[in-house]
Amino acid sequence: MSTAEETDGENTPWSEVTPEAARRLLVAAVDAFAERGYHATTTRDIAGRAGMSPAALYIHFKTKEELLHRISRIGHDRALTLLESAADGEGSATERLDGAVRAFVRWHAERHTTARVVQYELDALAEEHRTEIVELRRRSDAAVRRIIGEGVAAGEFDVSDVPGTALAVLSLCIDVARWFNAQGSRTPDEVGELYAGLVLRMVAAGR
Amino acid sequence: MSTAEETDGENTPWSEVTPEAARRLLVAAVDAFAERGYHATTTRDIAGRAGMSPAALYIHFKTKEELLHRISRIGHDRALTLLESAADGEGSATERLDGAVRAFVRWHAERHTTARVVQYELDALAEEHRTEIVELRRRSDAAVRRIIGEGVAAGEFDVSDVPGTALAVLSLCIDVARWFNAQGSRTPDEVGELYAGLVLRMVAAGR
């Protein structure tokens, strides 16, 4: 399921990972972590899924945690780029919030297996890695708060609790990774469109 | 963390489970599954956490899957009861949707450790148990759709995609289990109030 998913995105996922053997191990790790959980997965399982020996894995990743950290870092970097691009983009706050939600939903739908690992295995990261990831999440939150705050300041939105509303908007989009099913009746873009409409209502855009 | 959580609810959680040894095992299983994942947890781990021998565990639960099924069944029964009570209750659709969201959010916040296991370990259930749980989830969805549909019919709400909006409402509430932190700045009731307000905007109540 997820191996197919990994090649479906509009950009080639994991293209930032080289050499190809390391990329193959990362894709195998995502599949294994999503299927069995981080703690139930061994580096031997991951090497086996990638058609490699454990010794070959260690050339690229010293520990299982290093694999998780790499996955989490790439996923969080991507999320932050999407949200900051939307926040910094052209257009009104309404247009930018609409774009942020569509992009964030699409990522969580198209890359739902990766997103589940990224979102649900934070506790398994080593402390210094967790600190780094938490900082990326803080900046993602800030990007959404900024769009909403600017919409309020411009008189486009009517929101009394900006941090709480930003939290809810991100949470709504993130949970797409849990329920989205590639065999289901809605495409990632359709979910993005539905959700962008609901979020614009949450901030009372255009009322 | 979660053991404390389990005694914090307004009703005594797991009170439907008897005898006390079985209840103790269930609480231990929730903690272990939440911390390490279902597949990384052994019945020996669970018995140990409960201060019991593996042999004593087998008197109450024949397999690890039976423990997960019991947890999942109780959690889903509770969710369904909350949502159907709200749907069948007195008052306008606006009042009933408000009540449903507050109750559903409160459950996912107060019982966040249990809710994570209930929501994230569905794939680990045996097929016949999964079928049973999927049916409970279908009925929960239906309760929320019914409230929204009745609100539209009564002219209280303006919603073009009732199933999609119901899905989003449930998803928003469920994801509280992922991010809610008992040490955080918002109480379960405060999150419920915020979310009820956002959901009523999603359905354009009172516009």
UniProtKB/TrEMBL annotation, chains A, B:
InterPro entries: HTH-type_TetR-like_transc_reg, HTH_TetR, KstR2_TetR_C
Transmembrane parts of this sequence: none
All residue ranges annotated as the HTH tetR-type domain in the record: 19-79
PROSITE patterns with a match to the protein in the record: HTH_TETR_2 (PS50977)
Signal peptide range in chain numbering: none
Highest taxon in the source lineage: Bacteria
Matches recorded under Pfam families: TetR_C_24, TetR_N
DNA-binding region: 42-61
Assigned keywords, A-Z: DNA-binding
The protein's name in its UniProt record: TetR/AcrR family transcriptional regulator
